[in-house]
Amino acid sequence: MNTWKYFDITHKHHVLCNPMSEEKFERFCQLLNLPKDTRILDIACGKGEVLVRLAEKYGISGVGVDLSPFCINDCKKKHLERVPESDLTFIELDGANYRPESGRLFDVAVCLGASWVFENHAGTLKALKQMTKSGGLVIVGEPFWLKEPDTEYLEVTKMTRNSFRPHEDNVYQGEEMGLTCLYTLVSNKDDWDHYETLQWWAVDNYIQSHMDDPDNQELLERTKTAKDIYLKWGRDTVNWGIYIFRNP
Questions:
Q1: 207, CA 20 to 30 Å: which among 19, 32, 137, 170?
Q2: What is the pLDDT of residues 160-179, one digit of tens each?
Q3: 233 SS3 class
Q4: Domains of the chain, CATH where assigned
C-alpha cells in the first residue's frame, strides 16, 4: 500500500496531524503574536493548517514543504478556500532537500512532529536554525519518553532507547546549540487519544465507502497493529511537545 495513501486515509478527519488539541493550537497561535511581514517556513507541513491559520490571523507569508502529494493537494485547496490573497507557497519535496530561495532566511521556521526529515531532534533544530534569521523563532514538535520504554515495545516499533529523550533533554539540546527556549506546550492523554483513535474511525469510514479497494486488508492489519501498540504501550510511554526557541 502506498505510504502517502495510508496516511491520507488515516488522517482524513484530522485538522492537525499531531496530538495537539484545537484549544492548545489556538493558544499557540495567540502566543506567537506575529507582525504582518513575518515569513514562515513549515517543513513537513501536513495539510497546511499552521500556515493557513497564521495567515488568517496575522496576514503572514510563508512556504510549506511536504513529501506527500495528498497533503500538498490539501494545502493548496485550503489556501484557495480560506486565504486566497495570502502569499503562501506549498511545495511537494523532501524537506531535507529544501533550500531557501536566494538564501533568504525566514523569521520563523517550523517542523512539527517530523524530525525524521533531518534524522533526529538535534538535526532538526540545527537545520531550522540555519534557515532562520537572527532573533527569529525555531519551533519544533517532538515526542519524549514518559518512562523507560519496554524492550518489547521497542522491538515491535523498531525503535531504540535513543529514538526519543526525556522532555527536559528536548529543551537542553536546543539550548546547547545556542537557542533560547521560550515556551513548551505539552500534550495530554486526551490529545493523544483524539489523535490516535480518530485514525481508527477514519479507516472504518474509508472501508465502508470503498469496499472494493484491494488495499483494505492491509489497511485493517496496519490499523490493528497500531491500535494494539498504542493501547498496550504507547499511551503510557511516550508523549509529545512543541518547543519554541529564539535564535540569538
A1: 19
A2: 999 999 999 999 999 999 99
A3: helix
A4: 14-188+240-246 (3.40.50.150)
Round to whole Å and give the CA distance between 207 and 170: 39
Sheet hosting strand 132-145, strand order edge to edge: 88-92, 61-66, 39-43, 106-112, 132-145, 238-246, 180-186
Encode pLDDT of 108-130 as tens digits.
999 999 999 999 999 999 999 99
Q: What average pLDDT score do residues 36-42 get? A: 97
